[in-house]
Amino acid sequence: MQNRVVPRWLVAFVSMAVVVVLDVTSTAGQSTTAGSYRAPRTLDGKPDISGIWQVLNTASWDIQAHNAADGVPAGQGVVEGGQIPYQPWAAEKKKQNALRWKTEDPLQKCFLAGVPRATYLPFPFQIIQTPKVIGLAYEYNHGSRTIYTDGSPHSGVDEFWMGDSRGHWEGETLVVDVNGFNDQTWFDRAGNFHSEALHVVERYTRISPDVMTYEATIEDSKVFTRPWKMSMPLYRRQEKNVRLLDYVCLEFREPFVSFDELSKTR
User: Fold this and answer.
1) What's the pLDDT tens digit per position in 111-130?
2) Domain contains 95
3) pLDDT value for 159
4) Sign of the C-alpha dihedral computed for residues 216, 236, 17 and 12 taken in this order
5) Distance between CA 154 and CA 163 in Å, rounded?
6) How many CA atoms lie within 13 A of 140 on its CB side?
7) What is the C-alpha radius of gyration for the chain, rounded to an integer number of angstroms?
8) CA atoms within a 13 Å half-sphere pointing along the CA-CB vector of 256
9) In the chain, which ranges are continuous DSSP H helix?
10) Is residue 144 part of a domain?
11) Taking the CB of residue 21, how many other CB atoms lie within 10 A of it?
């Protein structure tokens, strides 16, 4: 499978998207507490979760609670229960990954971030809804995903960097089943990892006009002893004319120096 970024597709995707009309009156006077908030609806009656969203946490550095370090802000962690249930061999590999992150972290090689890591990178991402598919465009490295909500089954193709996503609605929540991964992405810079058997179930629930909860249940029988969960809020970006900007990751390489140039320095 391709191991670099996919082409930008946002403009083409928007051109085919159904225009989303917000039912402003449906939210008037409603509580913004989780469980009672009813999101505005799209033309096909589904909760509207479109917009540009971003996290305000340190999960990109380490999804578990961690102290501050050189270039790393302290964080409380986003893993339910605080601990990741690694198998013994995998716990040791995670430690080795952490020591070698400068060369081994897939983001250091400019690969795609994978799921769920793309969600909590310190970059915004955009959600675009249509009746049959939901598009996600990530500012980091032009990453993208298509979540099929038309009832179609998984493709059966493996080794995707961003997985194969199929979604459905459960009340106010978009539930996304993701499989078909390769084993080349990490969960964070701290070396938390998975195998190609990774299975992720995401849940997106808008709980107020500008806040959405994100949950990801992680299952990988080759690496973990049981399924586990992470969760966090996502915040709608509010700036005037907010949009995804251009961020292209360029893998560092030593510049080529010819023999003639090298001889001149001696």
Assistant:
1) 999 999 999 999 999 999 99
2) yes
3) 87
4) negative
5) 10
6) 18
7) 20
8) 1
9) 10-16, 88-99, 101-104, 259-264
10) yes
11) 11
Are 17 and 129 spatial neighbours (Cβ–Cβ below 8 Å)? Answer: yes
Residue 136's CATH number: 2.40.128.20
Do 195 and 222 contact (CB within 8 A), yes or no?
yes
Q: How many residues does the chain have?
A: 266
pLDDT over 70 at 77, yes or no: yes
88 part of a folded domain: yes
260 CB burial (10 A radius; 0-12, 13-18, 19+)? exposed
E strand map for the chain? 51-54, 125-129, 133-138, 144-148, 164-170, 173-179, 199-208, 211-219, 228-236
> Whole-structure pTM over 0.90, yes or no?
no
- Antiparallel, parallel or unpaired: β 199-208 and 173-179: antiparallel
Classify residue 3: in a domain, yes or no: no
Summary mean pLDDT of the chain: 87
Name residue, tokens 């998207």. 17
Candidates 124, 134, 176, 167; CA nearest to 42 is: 134
Task: Convert 117-141 to b/e letters by CB count within 10 Å (16 or more is b).
Answer: bbbbbebbbbbbbbeebbbbbbbbb
DSSP symbol at 71: T
Are 39 and 24 a contacting pair, CB within 8 Å?
A: no
Beta-carbon count within 10 A of 102 CB: 8
* Residue reference for tokens 């995670």: 94
Q: Tell me which residue range forms the domain holding 65.
A: 10-264
Distance (Å, whole) CA 95 – CA 191: 7
Mode of pairing for the β-strands spanning 125-129 and 133-138:
antiparallel
Q: Which residues are registered as beta bridge partners of 140?
A: 247
For the chain, how many structural domains are there in total? Answer: 1
